[in-house]
What does this fold into?
Amino acid sequence: MRTSRPLLPGLIEACHAVIVSNADHLGELDRAIGDGDHGTNMKRGSEAVYAERDQLGGLPLPEALEKIGMVLVTTIGGAAGPLYGTLLIEMGRGLRAAGSGDGVLAETLPPAVAAVARRGRAQAGDKTLLDVLYAVQQAVLKQSPPAEVAAYAMSAATDTIAMKALRGRASFLGDRSIGHMDPGACSCALLTGSICRFLEEFPSA
It folds into this structure.
């Protein structure tokens, strides 16, 4: 049963499962407006983290997040690796500085998302995974329950279909990028949904 696993290894397993099962779909999205390798890249990064799940589970959470971030930077090709890696590395650093207690995620997420924006030189509306991260950030700050956070994330990914890409390889297509979901936004929404579902099922005691 999934909830019998410790928290971090269980989360890693959940994220790995959703990426592996959607790798082909992510690749199809990326072939429409990019290189077509987002699904393959995400799967490679997910498998690298999955292979270290038990060791990561033995680390303090801030250190584990930073290590996962470094793994993603070095194993996911394209822009996604540095962006996902930056998010987790900065969250780890934020958690270490903030310590424990209620509201820590709400405190550490905005600076981490801001670091991703700086790294990608992107902002809301550019048709990137940041569109999902900003939606998740807003939901977390509102203390929305996990199911609502997941819904916000998928809605934000769907909203990228109508957007014109302003960053990344898709931006070279100009108006032709309109009508396609951004693959990074999709992977971010899928991961958010998987994390939220796992947290809903994980025993609080």
